[in-house]
Amino acid sequence: MSRQDHIIANIKPSTAIRHDYNSFSKLCHETQAPVVVTKNGEADLVVMSFEAYQKMMARQRLGQMLAEVDREIAAGKPMRDLDEAFAEIQKRLDNA
After folding, report:
1. Is residue 67 domain-shared with residue 31, that is, in the same domain?
2. Contacts by residues 38-47 (CB-CB < 8 Å, ≥ 24 positions apart)
């Protein structure tokens, strides 16, 4: 099952939140996937656990960084020394 199929499989009416928040929350945490919430039969919101949201944002930031590196390589920018790159990464982690 692809990620898109998994998202589509998690569709709940808005009453699911109002009537049984705990079960709805458990679904979000267990699946770690977005849940489409419908209102009057139409898609209205997308809800996910905070942990899943953080992971999604981290993947997005990583994708942006990789795209930037790809652009630098395509532009012929010289590559950095591996030890220097790791030292910079460690510095960023220490300051985070």
Report:
1. no
2. 38/11, 38/12, 38/13, 38/14, 39/13, 39/14, 43/11, 44/14, 45/14, 47/17
Q: Which of 38, 40, 41, 42 is nearest to 11 (CA)?
A: 38
With contact defined as beta carbons under 8 Å apart, do 15 and 38 qualify?
A: no
* Whole-structure pTM value: 0.68
What is the tens place of the pLDDT at every residue in 8-46?
A: 578 999 999 999 999 999 999 999 999 999 999 999 999
CA distance 47 to 30: 13
Range of the domain at 11: 3-48
Is the same domain home to 7 and 39?
yes
Domain count, the chain: 2
Domain boundary among 13, 30, 48: 48
